[in-house]
Amino acid sequence: MSFSKTVEITETSADTRRITVTVNGTPRVVEVEPRLLLVHLLREGLALRGTHIGCDTTNCGACTVLHDGNPIKSCTMLAVQADGHEITTVEGLGTPSELDPVQEGFHREHGLQCGFCTPGMMMAARALLDREPDPSEEDVRWALSGNLCRCTGYQNIVKAVLWAADKQRGAQPAEEDAR
Ligand code: FES
Ligand code: FES
């Protein structure tokens, strides 16, 4: 598969590389310019637009995806650096009929308002719960410290991740606040 469209969006150059990236479990062979950012490959080349671009300068975390299970800001990584690696985007987190506990937590605890930061928040949270299934509130806040939200004040996001941790461990998730 060759993504001539992907090349065009960064101004055409004859210099392209063929790379293989496993995205959400599926190997994808794509041809990209060496300067193409991973976030543009995901959004424009592979039409995975759940990964957002909020700043393009490594500040906001809206573009967070998992690279071999580690959270990275995909606006700060070149697509060619993902060659031979596994990338997980928010589209790979769960399915409508079987939500990831993190997705369910955000729903249950109302961990979003406009939702722009939410994909990145959820990917950072997924990485945390993969390495620390029983995080403290401080652990959650630290893990999400590279992700900015301009709406929520973070409180419900933290509650959502703690709810997901309980759910994932099979513990009784904390009761939702009465609203
Ligand atoms: S778009 Fe990547 S950190 Fe903001
Ligand atoms: S919910 Fe709007 S930026 Fe976080």
UniProtKB/TrEMBL annotation:
Keywords: 2Fe-2S, Iron, Iron-sulfur, Metal-binding, Oxidoreductase. This is Carbon-monoxide dehydrogenase small subunit. CDD domains: fer2. GO terms for molecular function: 2 iron, 2 sulfur cluster binding; metal ion binding; oxidoreductase activity. Pathway: Alkaloid degradation; nicotine degradation. It comes from Pseudonocardia thermophila. Residues 17-93 form the 2Fe-2S ferredoxin-type domain. The keyword Iron applies. The keyword Oxidoreductase applies. Pfam families: Fer2, Fer2_2. PROSITE patterns: 2FE2S_FER_2.
